What we know:
The protein has one helix at 2-25; strands at 32-40, 43-53, 58-61, 64-79, 90-105, 110-122, 127-128, 131-132, 137-148, 153-163, 174-184. By secondary structure, it is mainly β. The chain has a single domain, classed as Porin. Strands 1-2-4-5-6-9-10-11 form an 8-stranded antiparallel β-barrel. Strands 7-8 form a two-stranded antiparallel sheet. The radius of gyration is 17 Å and the shape is elongated. The model has no long low-confidence stretch (mean pLDDT 89). It is found in: Cell outer membrane.
Amino acid sequence: MQKKQTALKLLAVVGLLSGFQMAHALDLTPDSASLELGTGNKSQLVRAATQWDWGTKWWQSNGTHIGGYWDLSLAEFRQNKYQNIEDQTKNFTDIGFTPVFRFQKDDKKGLYAEAGVGVHLMSHLYDNNGRRFSTAFEFGDHVGFGYVFNNGLDLGLRVQHFSNGSIKEPNNGANFAVLRTAYRF
């Protein structure tokens, strides 16, 4: 089982790196990269991601608009009450892809608010602190806000929810508070 999990993680990293090479060849180079730390339901996550800006400005008014980006992520979760047993831990990996809408200034600096709903594939079923997922495929939705500084540094806070959308029971879902830092290239 451990070899299978290691192979899945290696495959995910190779896939991401191959994707970067292909994106560069097609001039789809990412516009930014982020690192996120989250906690919730007696578990933690660390997530690295890349983003591709849509380059659109919807409902432009008074120097603001709604834009967005694609977010491709790779995360590692640590469950600290696995199968509802105190101090029993289990790690798993998650690959996610999320379209994110962002209300922001036209120059993309300063305060912003955002929301997204994406898909996630987890290497193992989440089963922590009395909350169980019945599928490895999950939806991940979030709302958040943040601030983009003049140098391109983006600091944000999100509330994220994972659930399979009642595809299969049980569907307890789990919530996380996520601190995000990103840098625009």
